[in-house]
């Protein structure tokens, strides 16, 4: 029962972190000249406008209730932010900036959350620090999960697309399979060990800096 309770708490954290992640994409695209996301109401911190039935609701909740034979990592995603690269002022540069804005937002949030925990500790109000630590770790996991797995539709694949000069049309053909290949690749122990290792080491480094 405690496992389910902890999973539901992390699920609420995930929704908040995904909201900021997608807001980062949408806001950066708007500032770089493309107002497609803004016109669709995506430059917003309202979770509802970013939620996707499969990626934000079904998949994460399945992970909470799945048996231990399957990875219990709380995987999930939000509705992709629409970006028209032809509206960007400097398409090659701005496309990468928009892509990195989501993971960058999660990295920044981890710093802000741990800073808050440090201030609360100094004020002897650290009762929430365990939850804040969990949220900061999950934010870093979202950052590196998106960046270090270059599989469409994850952000890392967009960076690779820009680096190799793949056309947007070809990329969208690869991305049409959604999260199915992501879930399959995540079941490889070496992949989990790599992403979790980078996340844990970064988290520990931040803890040493703040505490």
Describe this protein's structure.
The chain has one domain. It is 69% helix and 0% strand. It contains 9 helices and no strands. The chain has helices at residues 2-31, 36-39, 53-65, 91-122, 129-148, 155-164, 168-175, 180-186, 189-210. The longest helix is centred in the middle third of the chain and has 32 residues, at 91-122. It is globular, with a radius of gyration of 17 Å. The model has no long low-confidence stretch (mean pLDDT 90).
Please name the defining characteristics of this protein:
9 helices, 211 residues, mainly alpha
| Estimated helix fraction | 55-70%
The helix-strand sequence is HHHHHHHHH
Report the span from N to C terminus. Answer: 32 Å
- Work out the strand percent: under 5%
- Number of separate strands: 0
Shape: globular
- How large is the count of helical segments? 9
Domain count: 1
Q: What does the largest sheet look like?
A: none
| Mean pLDDT figure | 90
Low-confidence spans: pLDDT under 50, at least 5 residues?
A: none
Q: Report the C-alpha radius of gyration, rounded.
A: 17 Å
Instruction: Find the structural class using helix and strand composition.
Output: mainly alpha
How are the secondary structure elements laid out?
Layout: H1 2-31, H2 36-39, H3 53-65, H4 91-122, H5 129-148, H6 155-164, H7 168-175, H8 180-186, H9 189-210
Helix pairs in contact: 1-3, 1-4, 1-5, 4-5, 4-6, 4-9, 5-9
């Amino acid at each position: 029962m405690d496992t389910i309770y902890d999973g539901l708490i992390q699920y609420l954290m995930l929704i908040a972190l995904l909201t900021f992640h997608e807001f980062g994409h949408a806001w950066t695209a708007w500032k770089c000249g493309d107002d497609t996301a803004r016109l669709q109401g995506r430059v917003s911190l309202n979770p509802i406008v970013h939620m996707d039935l499969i990626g934000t609701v079904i998949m994460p909740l399945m992970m909470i209730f799945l048996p231990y034979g399957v990875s219990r990592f709380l995987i999930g995603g939000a509705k992709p932010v629409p970006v028209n690269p032809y509206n960007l002022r400097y398409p090659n540069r701005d496309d990468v900036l928009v892509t990195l804005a989501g993971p960058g937002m999660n990295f920044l949030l981890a710093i802000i959350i741990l800073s808050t925990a440090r201030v609360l500790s100094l004020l002897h109000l650290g009762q929430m620090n365990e939850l804040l630590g969990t949220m900061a770790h999950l934010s870093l996991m979202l950052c590196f999960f998106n960046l270090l797995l270059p599989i469409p539709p994850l952000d890392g694949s967009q960076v690779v697309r820009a680096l190799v000069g793949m056309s947007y049309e070809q990329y969208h053909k690869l991305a049409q399979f959604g999260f199915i290949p992501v879930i399959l690749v995540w079941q490889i122990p070496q992949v989990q060990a790599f992403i979790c290792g980078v996340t844990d080491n970064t988290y520990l480094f931040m803890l040493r800096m703040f505490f």
